[in-house]
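In the laboratory, one determines a bound structure by crystallizing the protein with its ligand and collecting diffraction data. In a computational setting the workflow is compressed into a single prediction: the sequence and the ligand go in, and a structural description comes out. We illustrate the idea with calcium ion.
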Amino acid sequence: MNKVKNMRRLLSLLVLIFLCVSHSQAQRMKFTINSNWSFSLQEEDASSVNYNTKGWEKVSFPHTWNAKDSDDEIPGYFRGKGWYRNTIDIDRDLAKEQVYVFFEGANQETDIFINGKYVGNHKGGYTAFSFDITKFLNKGKNTIAISVDNTLNNNITPLGGDFTMFGGIYRDVYLLYTPKAHISTTHYASSGVYLDAYQITDKEAKIKLRTYLSNATDKSQRYYLKTQVQDAEGNIVAEKNNPITIPEKSENILFQTDLSVKKPKLWNTDTPYLYRVFTYLYDSNNKVIDCVSNPLGLRTIKFDPDKGFFINGQPCKLMGTSRHQDYVGWGNALKDEMHIRDIKMIKDLGAKFIRISHYPQDPFVIEQCNNLGILSSIEIPIINNITMSEEYTKNCIDQVTEMVYQSYNSPSVVVWAYMNEILLNQVYKKNKKIEKNKYLKELYNLAYSIEQKIRSIDDSRYTMIACHNAPALYKEAGLTDIPKILGFNIYYGWYGSNIHDIKSVLDEIKRMFPDKPLILTEYGAGVDSRIHSFEPERYDFSNEYGSYFHEYYIPVLQERDFVSGSAVWNFNDFSSERRKEATPHVNNKGLVGTDRECKDTYYLYKAYLSDSPVLHICGDFWECRAGASIDGETSTQPLKIYTNAEKVKITANGKDLGEYDVKDRKAELTIPFINGINRIEAQIVYDGEVIKEQYICDFRCINVKHNFTEMSIMLGSKRYFEDKTGNICWIPEKEYTEGSWGYVGGRPIVNKVPFGTSSASTKEIFGTDQDPIFQTQREGIEQFKADIPNGKYSVYLYFSELLSKENNEKLLYNLDPNQTDKRYSNRVFSIYINGQCVRKDFNIAEEYGINRAVIIKYEIDVFDNKGLTVSFEEKESTPVLNAIRIVRN
Ligand code: GCB
Ligand code: CA
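The predicted complex, in structure-token form:
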């Protein structure tokens, strides 16, 4: 008995040694060639070997040429062709090896040339692709020239969308060496191995493996294919050895086998247990010549139209967020660690779901989802409208095929999606040449072929289309019949005026499609974290309105089991070059900003979704704070706490304010802020552990009679605006009363925007990055008075002409109506300070243009206890004032 055991041990030791030795000889090698490329934006063909790159820029991948122009004040960003050139040094034996160039992604059409010869083309900006370049190479130095074009191309999806389509090679590029016979690298740029786990029980999980093999030699040969499953600790838990023959000169020959894992450990969001499947190719001398590995997560998934999503038979509400792949300043050209950071932050939120939207992202995104236990849907970008052409259809099919194959082995992926709000831009309404029925039919056919394609590759997962809030239209087009589940993007309380409608509309959608599982694929509200309001309202972009919006939605979603999941639009603020509003060129519906600084809403979700203690003082990033004050010493303002504890204790400036009950993850109170530095402390007990948070701010009590130093007031506004660069806080207007300060006469402007009105203009203001200060104004103002003490002052008047007679193009998504403003008329007025005319016949539009930040500073002496009176005298149309700042010198 013992002998047998020892023999076995010896044998397995030998096998191990054999494996180790031979594995170390595995020849595949993949490495980036990201550095030191010459780059030029140009149409001219730069593919020839001796092309002169004098004057070209040096860049490294990830690279985009739109990092700056997508965020400047000049409308548009470069969409055209860029060339990259470099030399690659080949020091290996090309008779024995194959060489591939592998792109993780380039936006959006790529052509590759080696040593002046054309290698190939790829269309689509978000999926990986690879080319066999062996026959183009010589030993030693080779030139590689790559052109990338991000011009809008009607035959490459997407045709539009609310995000910047940054051009360039914005993900890693690799060279990949393999032996002549190898596990395929050109099967849709995947690993060449596809794993299907099925019949997963406590006892075992069966796994079907499909491996694609290639042989570039001119000899058909015998090989061995070994497939080995290792558990998370590296123990071999299943193994299969198959002799195979790979015919000569063959590419992507399919080989199938299966095996089973006993007593499988399952993958789920709490314990994302991963096995790793190694696929080895041995030659006839028993030498490993190639090896790839793939993650294997064993789990079952099910969407039930009434009860929601289940993983391994357990219910699991898929609450989470969407994510865009850019950082402002970087565009889409991110370092790996920036992608990883985002997914970790989403996990830390307690999210169970990511909608990877609107396109496939960096491989690290899904890898992190696999590792951390976050379920996901991935989609190809078919947005707003389609082209009715064979080429466009083919491109959609190509992109979806690449997407599915490239992420096939990721247990985190549960949904393959395509088409986002495809009926939003009803082109047949705008273009008489397009007939509605024909368009809808074409759309149906496109969706149908994509669906068939996905199911033919992978029927084990679900499929989804994300519709906008027009269920009847999608039904009319037949689109709602096609995918296995439906997504809806619904924005009541933002694009829709009444937030409460979200409930009835969700319920109505359920009635319309009783058998379809449902995900709320988008909902959200814009937040500019510099803006605050104690009377939050739709379209004010305040932190407080954003909080109100999400506080309302979370219970609505949680109460409805038929809502399988939801994805906040969006995890991050992201680039959308054409967007205007408070933060032009940026869609600010993120739970975190462009730099990933967390907004209050991030913590609200965390308080609901996370299992670890959460305590957040809302607005704790509001460092320079201010408010009107009756005595110049104190000013009372509301404060909110987000926490998952039941009670929270508060002290302010050392004074105990007592204990507050937490309801719906929040406690609300008021704080008597004092002039100067304030320290607010919150404390919870969570699982017996005491947790504390503090908020420190520099508060300015605004009062003209006590300690007056300065005041910054936004007219026509209920908003506060923090300017961290100047360390000042703008506060809302109020009406003048004797002994105090404020406006006399006039009214706040009301802006017409889609789905209602807004108290702030949605125009981009040129010449400033503090657009909100200029986006509100008081029209017809007669005076601004401040009963300030005698002394010398700087008085800054802020203006912007917000009305225009120009008729601009109307954009989808943007709140700015971009139409002629009917109220426009030539505005001329005079300004007087303490009786003296300081500006006669002022015409903002004529002198400065419209939507431009105009600041005029006056040096003023106040004497005879007259205080300050700025008067406005109408000449033509009504005077306006956007903001005023008064500083005692
Ligand atoms: C949508 C779109 C998304 C936009 C979003 C918004 O419905 O699907 O791409 O960014 O609305 O913020 O308007
Ligand atoms: Ca621009």
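The chain is about 15% helix and 40% strand. Keep in mind that any predicted model is a hypothesis to be tested, not a measurement.
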